[in-house]
Design a protein that fits this description.
By secondary structure, this protein is mainly alpha-helical. The chain has one domain. Helix content is about 80%, strand content about 0%. It has three helices and no strands. The chain has helices at about 5-25, 25-50, 55-85. The radius of gyration is 21 Å and the shape is elongated.
Length: about 90
């Protein structure tokens, strides 16, 4: 291999490693938010489809959905801020 392709491979590997790191930031919070959205939506469907479901199920599902979406938005903003502070720079 020539030196030019080694440099391109190294740069490509560094870029992939940086992207992978950004994707892993706040992964547990993101998964918790996703699970909360699924749970909140399931509770809302249960409350809407079952006439014997208690009224608190609607309010609980709305609360779970609101908190879960807030966690999702927090993760998006936190990752954006991290990328702004530590942008990708190719290796020397």
């Amino acid at each position: 291999m020539s030196q030019g392709t080694d440099g391109a491979d190294t740069e490509h590997a560094a870029r992939i490693a940086w992207i992978t790191h950004v994707r892993r930031l706040h992964r547990n919070k993101r998964m918790l938010g996703f699970a909360g959205i699924v749970l909140g939506a399931a509770m809302l469907v249960w409350w809407k489809s079952d006439p014997t479901a208690p009224n608190w199920a609607m309010w609980a599902s709305i609360g779970v959905l609101a908190v879960s979406w807030a966690v999702f938005i927090y993760v998006i903003v936190a990752r954006w801020k991290w990328v702004k502070v530590k942008p990708y720079s190719p290796p020397e």
